[in-house]
TrEMBL record:
Lineage of the organism: Bacteria, Bacillati, Actinomycetota, Actinomycetes, Kitasatosporales
UniProtKB keywords: Flavoprotein, FMN, Oxidoreductase
Protein's UniProt name: NAD(P)H-dependent oxidoreductase
Organism, scientific name: Streptomyces olivaceiscleroticus
Chain ranges of the NADPH-dependent FMN reductase-like domain: 5-156
Pfam families assigned to the protein according to its UniProt record, in alphabetical order: FMN_red
PANTHER family assigned to the protein according to its UniProt record, in alphabetical order: FMN REDUCTASE (NADPH)
InterPro entries according to UniProt: CE1759_FMN_reduct, Flavoprotein-like_sf, FMN_Rdtase-like_dom, NAD(P)H-dep_FMN_reductase
Origin superkingdom: Bacteria
Amino acid sequence: MKPLTIVAVSAGLGVPSSTRLLADRLAEATRRRAADGPARPVEVRVIELRDLATDIAHNMVTGFPSPALGEAIEAVTAADGLIAVTPIFTASYSGLFKSFFDVIDHTALTGKPVLIAATGGTARHSLALEHALRPLFAYLRAVVVPTAVYAASEDWGTGGSGPGGALTERVERAAEELAGLMRGSASAPAAHGADDLDDVVPFAEQLAALRAG
């Protein structure tokens, strides 16, 4: 049986990185939730964009990905579920994060289940998930889970990330939503192609028929 695949993209710049830490927690929680369903293996991969920064910049200029970047793009586009995590800089996603998704074909994530998450210094940046990340993936026609996860510096204390803490609750809720979408999309039939649209009546013809009536 083909395993379910979860790919987490981390745009953290430091080592260690709170962005990578959040990506790992979300990926592990989603793996556990996805494994709770019908017996099926689950594979997890985390892609660190900092390791691909130069390749991404070259791709932006030349239009051609390096082998390493091409392989990362293929992993993202083939995944059953995507977790996208960025640090928040100047009230939005990082330039590295945006550039990576800019070099992916704008139709490649159509219908893909996506969990969005971010890290920042204070909770007041959390709205960037809704005014920046969610519209980005909506434009790419991905299916974004309802719960977005933001982790401020104070969330990494025992009150936020410990058992029963607020961050833990958000992580588990978002992971359950993503796992549910993954199970559904993996069992769904293939999307209809352009040939299936032959019977659709163009809007102009429908409008003309209404006027004639």
